[in-house]
Amino acid sequence: MTQPDLSSIDAATIAINQRMNKFDGHEQVWLFGYGSLIYKADFPYIERRAASIEGWTRRFWQGSHDHRGTPLAPGRVVTLVPQAGAVCDGMAYLITPEVFAHLDHREKNGYLRLATDITFDDGSKVEGLVYIANEENAAFLGAASEFDIARQIARSSGPSGPNSDYLLHLASALRELGKADPHVFAIEQHLAQLRETPATDPTP
Ligand code: SIN
């Protein structure tokens, strides 16, 4: 199987994001995070507030070759998939435009900036940005059973650490926010069961 040229895909993703000019001239922009951006804010921000966006659901359907896996053995991380009536809970950060250089690099494995309405927990709304890896990006893995996703996460690791840390940090960050996500929590439970069951060798 030919390997995709990941560095040129990453560069193309960054270039598309840099051309996104929707908020040009704004001194501050709200960014909505729903995955590692909830629990790992490695960038300066002015304010941070629990928030949600509508019409999207969180799924472990995006491959990670650069953070939680490798090009030959990708891990799984979350992206958002459109779903009518769905609400995705997360964290919104008020940032200055200079922060996008760092974020574009961090999210370069297929995540594109998209403008979205963000609803804060007090019901007020603002227009901001979210990074979404859609099904057309080369790293997209798509649907699998929550058990198979847990198995892939259990065996994957990359430069940012074990894939299981990503899942467990996300699940506990959602609990700290007082939010439930059945998909994330089901995968977390499968992972816990996999860790309890010793691996069996199928050969006699
Ligand atoms: C996000 O957290 O908003 C994007 C996905 C990720 O970086 O995990």
Please provide a written account of the structure:
With 204 residues, the chain is α+β, with helices and mostly antiparallel strands. The protein has a single domain (6-195), classed as Hypothetical upf0131 protein ytfp, CATH 3.10.490. It is built from 6 helices and 7 strands, in the order H-E-H-E-E-H-E-E-H-E-E-H-H. It has helices spanning 6-19, 36-39, 99-106, 146-155, 163-177, 182-196; strands spanning 29-33, 47-64, 75-95, 112-120, 125-132, 157-158, 161-162. A 5-stranded mixed β-barrel has the order 1-3-2-4-5. Strand 4 (112-120) and strand 5 (125-132) form a beta hairpin. Helix 1 runs antiparallel to helix 3 (99-106), helix 4 (146-155) crosses helix 6 and helix 5 (163-177) crosses helix 6 (182-196). The longest helix has 15 residues, at 163-177. The radius of gyration is 17 Å and the shape is globular. The two termini are 32 Å apart. The protein binds succinic acid (SIN).
List the helices and strands and how they pair.
Layout lengths: L5 H14 L9 E5 L2 H4 L7 E18 L10 E21 L3 H8 L5 E9 L4 E8 L13 H10 L1 E2 L2 E2 H15 L4 H15 L8
Parallel strand pairs: 1-5
Antiparallel strand pairs: 1-3, 2-3, 2-4, 4-5, 6-7
Helix pairs in contact: 1-3, 4-6, 5-6
The protein binds succinic acid.
